[in-house]
Fold this sequence. Notes:
The protein is α/β, with parallel strands linked by helices. Helix 5 packs across helix 15. The chain is globular, with a radius of gyration of 24 Å.
Amino acid sequence: WITMALCFLQVLREPVVQYLAGSEQRIAPFWNIITWYPTGEIFNYLELRQMLRAQGHRFYTHSDTEVIVHLYEEFGDAFVNHLVGQFAIALWDRNAQRMLFVRDRAGIRPLFYTRTAGRLYFASEVKSLFTQPEITRRLNPQALGEVFTFWATLEPHSLFEDVYALPPGHLMIVEGGEPRVSRYWDWEFPKDGIPDGRSVDDWADELRERMIDSVRLRLRSDVPVGAYLSGGLDSSVITSLIRNFTDTPLRTFSIGFEDAEFDESAYQRDLVNYLETEHTHVTCTAGDISQLFPRVIWHTESTILRTAPAPLMLLSRHVRESDYKVVLTGEGADEVFGGYDIFKEAKIRRFCHRYPDSTLRPLILKKLYPYLKYNPAASGDFGKQFFQQGMEYIDQPFFAHVPRWSTTRRSWRFFSAEMKSAVESKVGYESILRLLPKDIGRWDPLNRDQYVENHTLLSGYLLNSQGDRMAMANSVEGRFPFLDHRVMEFAANIPARYKIRILNEKFILKKSMAGLIPDSIRKRSKQPYRAPDSLSFFSGGKPVPYVQELLSEESLRTAGYFNPAAVGKLLNKGANGRIIGFADNMAFVGILSTMLLDKMFIQGYSAASFE
């Protein structure tokens, strides 16, 4: 404790770095090196300890954290290349008078920073930065425009002005008072195709072995480990691998809905019976969503366009109440193995562009989105118009995403005149190009689609709003076997035709699990996890009280982000149960979450004040 106190005081004496409360600090017993490590995990720490001991390093604790400082002593900045895990790390080297920040490759753990008055502030949550009165609280109009286009802010923006997020797979060195950011890892794909030297069976066999290893590593814990079970393929893979290839007792948790359109309970029961797991099922109501939503925004610290995080927060609460602190989940499988409908949609749209007169086109389109109550492909003329969006971008690497971005961007009509003026010249589809590799045009089209999805929706939206944040809101640690960088690198080399075979998504993953999960799940069509959106916020033809207050003309005018008249019409539409399309639902949830952000982070209200 004396050493810890002295080391901490040494950091505070330095003018460049100010440590903020809000994250766990673990200090290794070295005078010259201090690490800050906000509840991350180094899964391969046992192997690293053995390797470092063989090179003469002496360990003082049994913590996974201590390997970080030994690796830094041995390999310098390249130490991060040896880590398998999910982490945000700050490391102070007193001898060199330098600070090193590192974020994990997939962007599971957050790390924010800002500079003001000659100091650099950093924390794992923006709300920690805002404990300092000298840091200005303002929403960033450009970042807000990015969310209402791409679903997420583009690196390195956060939603707050002058507050930045260290991008996934990056490190930042602060030396001489100036920060330098560089990339240490990226998800790269082969150029000009992949040789056909391996059979699909060979790929499937090796994929299964790599997934077994990833799951085993993430079961390392000094507390019991559970797993989420959604009824879909991804969570079924994780739970089946735990059951069949480890000695860990299988404890599972799932969420269901009163509304049959969103409920997957029948598939969940199939897998529970097949695996004979001890299981907890939670049913989420519309009232649960509206009640939890302010707390959801308090933890996401960002505008969101769907209510899907709220049920996951409810589920993590039940996990914690069951005395479990760690769960394995299936996030990342759709990005890594081509599971999203957007990938199949892009494949069809490229086919339509090549063969515009094909009579198969209407039949193929109708195979998309069978789970949607209001399917855009169901109507011939509307479907044709919808799927022809963005054909002028056919040669751009972001072509697949234009229909979704166009639908999301329709929310701009609710912006105030000032907001529109602030974002129109700064946010366009081409904004994404600065994040893409120069040679991405030489990749297979599906690989291009995967890369763009990974650098927008995965790290900036799903992991932020549905993954890490909703679990940690109840002090539950989520672990993500599909986002092991070794699995991602292997999957990048799998031929695209084995990821999506005709329109069979995640074909190679399904093949690797033959005989390990029920055929009812292995052969079912993809149904993305969704939750009731705008209807959750109305009762008896009226908005719930806090929604009525936040979306009142006075509140909207004071905040200045949205046009009160336009939002008023949307609110009336919701009261009459007529918000049914994608665009209106996204707009409603996005506007409400932005107003909650303004109240809590700019004006200083607590999440509890909305309950």
